[in-house]
Structure formats: structure tokens, C-alpha cells
Amino acid sequence: MTSTRKRTWQCAAILLTVVGTAAGARAEKTEEPPPPTAETPAPAAAPAGPTGFGDGGQFVLSVENLFGWTYVHPSAGSGFNGFSLFANAEGVGASPYNFPRLSLDWFVSKPISIGLAASFFRISGSDSNLTGFEIAPRVGYSMMLGPWLAFWPRLGVTYVYSSIPQKYLGLTVDALLAIVASPHVMIPFGPTADIGLTGTVGNGSLKYTTVGLYFGLAVLL
């Protein structure tokens, strides 16, 4: 009888020990921290500054009127055609608006640009000096027609001065296309027109109106 009771208590103790051990293991498993989750990658930062032609803040440094064709119509006399390569075939006395010139345009916002083109010359001789310059402020509007072709119309005025003396003022209209050859190189080309508003040569009045097709080269900054 005593032996049977002793075995019963031993079995109960073993059972309690097993149950306690299992409960403890289950509690430890329940309290384990969840496995770490993969962190969501931060979105890539947008590139700073302009990324395409016509973006706000972009500068366009150009050499204009490098070569092309032009028709010149003076207010007195007959009109004529000319082709030029890195020069003005007729000279300032016959076609004041078509010399090669340097320009800088800035896109104040997408797609509005403001700019200024200019050229300068000076001729020194034994008995006289000749100085002249051209300035052409303008505004423009750009739009992309495809991945590499843009349309960039511009409107402004061009003022030409020569110490002969000569003074000319024209309304300038450009309807340029532009081949965007790379993120930093562009080839602008297209029709341009300078509509003569005023002009004087010495004490006389003379205005010039020109239309033509010109090519240039530009760097996007």
C-alpha cells in the first residue's frame, strides 16, 4: 500500500515537471521578438537642376547665324539674296542684322526663356576708325516635339550701330527648330526675320527687312 502510494506521488511529480517544462518553453517561444523585416528602400532623390531642354534654371550659350541663306529688302532700292558661312556676305551697310553673334538665354521657368544676343567689331586705319555693335534682347517659348527635336520660337528687337554713322532697329522673329544632340549640345536652325522699324545712314533714312534660314550651335548649361 505504501509502495503504491509512493509511486503515485512520483508519477504526479514527474507529470508536473513535464507540464511545467513544456509551459515554460511555450512561453519563451511566444515571447521571442518577431523576425526583422526588410527595410523599405528610400526613394531615389530627384536630380538637382535642369534635366532637359527648356527646364527652369537652364542656360543656353549659343553661336548664332553661323551659316545660311538670307533675302534683304531695303526701303530704298531693290532686294537681293545672299549665302554666308561664318560671316555676313553683304556687310553692315547692306544687311545689318545677319552677322554671326554670341547669345545667352536663360529659362526663367519651364518653358519661358529670356536672352540677349550681341556682336562687336572695330576697324582701325591710318586716318579713321570704325566701330560697331549689335544687341538683340528677346523672349522665347520652348516645347519638345520628340525625344531629340524641339521647337523654340522667339520674339525680340535688334539694334545695330556703326560709327559711319549708321543706326538700325528691327523687330526680330525666330521660328527655330533645335536638334538636341546630347544633354549638353544642341543645333538650332530655322527661319528668322528682322522687320525694319527705323534706320538712318548719315543724315538720311534707310530701313532694312531681312528673312532667311540660319544654323547655329548651342551648349546647354
* Parts with pLDDT < 50 across at least 5 consecutive residues: none
What is the structural class?
mainly beta
Gross geometry: elongated
How many alpha or pi helices? 1
In what order do the strands lie side by side in the largest sheet?
A: 1-3-4-5-7-8-9-11
Rg calculated over all Cα atoms: 39 Å
CATH-defined topology: Porin
Write the CATH architecture name: Beta Barrel
Strand content of the residues, in percent? over 45%
Question: Mean pLDDT, as a whole number?
Answer: 82
Number of strands: 11
CATH class reads Mainly Beta
Span between termini:
105 Å
Helix content: 10-25%
* Element pattern in H and E: HEEEEEEEEEEE
Major sheet details? 8 strands, antiparallel, barrel
Q: Structurally, how many domains make up the residues?
A: 1
Structural commentary:
- The chain has 221 residues and is mostly beta strands.
- The chain contains 1 helix and 11 strands.
- The chain has an 8-stranded antiparallel beta barrel with strand order 1-3-4-5-7-8-9-11.
- The longest helix is centred in the first third of the chain and has 29 residues.
- The protein is elongated and about 135 Å long.
- The protein starts with a helix and ends with a strand.
- The mean pLDDT is 82.
